Structure formats: structure tokens, C-alpha cells
């Protein structure tokens, strides 16, 4: 019993670390992307926030492996929109209220936009979304391999306050659930990184 509690706490800690340290920028619908512009000097030179939150594609709705994969890609797009815009509503709708890593990501975004500050960069390029042989709609867990571009925090005065470095071939496990006939992210757990 104590081992289970320790495992759950460790998984929760890793998930919070993953999202709080990787919340980020731009993805295309197919999961590929280009890194956002980097900051030059001390003032932010980044992309403007997207005009609207991404909508889940029809391919992300079915209760199938293909639908789950499409939903995970959409969720990363939604996380990117949230970081780029400071608007957490789309991420809330795409995530379970029980998702601790999702709540941690929302706090990072809220802190990043507090008092006129902004977040810049931090985009994701999803390389692969896969499932193991035990995948089923009762156990929807997917492994994601992605690159994370650097993310900067820029104060209201335009001065860069902090920089979180990029990472390549990072991995996580995304757990899904079905609610009201659609997928949503139940948890995100970091499983390691190859950089």
C-alpha cells in the first residue's frame, strides 16, 4: 500500500514538472511545427497570440486509437494556444478537472501573464504518438515524443525575465478518459527525456 502511494506521488510530481517546465507555443494540426522566433536582446520579439482557440478535429472524436491519437495532438495545440494567449479556457475544456499536470500548466500560464507580463515561445513539435499492445478504450494511455522550443518570460516593460531551455526527443505518457462522448486528458506523466 505504501508503495502505491509513493508511486502515485512520484507520478504526480513528474507530471507537474513536465507541464510546468514545458508549457509552450506553436503546432500545426498534423502535429508538426516550426519553432517560434527566439528573443533578441532584452525585449520580446515573438509571434502574436493566435486569434482563436483551436477546435478539435472530427478525427479526434471517435472512441478509437486513431481518435485518441488525434485528440492528444489537438491537446498539445490547445496547450500551445493557452501559453501564447494567456487564455486558459480551451485547456480547461480539453482536460479533466482531476488532471493535476493540467492544473499546474494553467498556473504557469497565469503566473506568466500576471501584471502585464507575457510568455514567448515554448512551442511543441510532436514527433510521434504511440500506444502499446495493451491499449484499449478502458486503458487509454499514449506515449508522446516531442521537441520543446525555448520559452521566455517577458515583463510588462518588455524586458526578458527568464528563459527556459529547449529540449529534444522528450517523452511523456498521456492518460485519456471519455466524458460526454468525447476524449479529454486525464493526466500527463513524464517518463523521461533524451536530449
Structural class: alpha+beta
- Give the strand content: 25-35%
What value does the average pLDDT take? 77
Could you describe the largest sheet, including whether it forms a barrel? 4 strands, antiparallel
H-E order: HHHHEEEEEEE
Q: What Rg, in angstroms, do the CA atoms define? A: 16 Å
Please tell me about this protein's structure:
Strand 6 and strand 7 form a beta hairpin. Helices cover 31% and strands 27% of the residues. It has one domain. Helix 1 packs parallel to helix 4. The chain is of the alpha+beta class and 195 residues long. A 4-stranded antiparallel β-sheet has the order 2-3-6-7. A 3-stranded antiparallel β-sheet has the order 1-4-5. The termini are far apart. 42% of the residues are buried. The longest helix is centred in the N-terminal third of the chain and has 21 residues.
Amino acid at each position: 500500500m505504501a508503495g502505491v502511494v509513493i508511486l502515485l506521488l512520484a507520478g504526480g510530481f513528474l507530471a507537474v514538472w513536465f507541464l510546468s517546465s514545458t508549457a509552450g507555443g506553436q503546432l500545426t494540426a498534423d502535429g508538426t511545427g516550426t519553432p517560434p522566433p527566439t528573443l533578441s536582446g532584452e525585449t520580446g520579439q515573438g509571434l502574436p497570440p493566435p486569434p482563436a482557440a483551436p477546435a478539435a478535429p472530427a478525427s479526434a472524436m471517435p472512441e478509437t486509437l486513431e481518435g485518441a491519437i488525434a485528440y492528444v495532438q489537438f491537446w498539445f495545440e490547445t496547450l500551445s494556444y493557452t501559453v501564447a494567449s494567456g487564455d486558459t479556457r480551451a485547456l480547461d475544456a480539453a482536460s479533466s478537472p482531476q488532471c493535476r499536470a493540467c492544473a499546474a500548466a494553467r498556473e504557469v500560464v497565469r503566473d506568466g501573464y500576471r501584471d502585464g507580463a507575457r510568455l514567448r515561445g515554448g512551442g511543441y513539435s510532436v514527433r510521434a504518438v504511440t500506444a502499446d499492445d495493451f491499449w484499449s478504450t478502458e486503458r487509454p494511455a499514449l506515449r508522446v515524443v516531442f521537441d520543446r522550443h525555448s520559452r521566455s518570460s517577458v515583463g510588462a516593460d518588455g524586458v526578458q525575465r527568464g528563459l527556459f531551455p529547449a529540449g529534444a526527443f522528450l517523452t511523456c505518457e498521456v492518460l485519456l478518459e471519455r466524458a460526454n462522448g468525447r476524449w479529454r486528458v486525464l493526466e500527463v506523466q513524464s517518463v523521461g527525456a533524451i536530449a
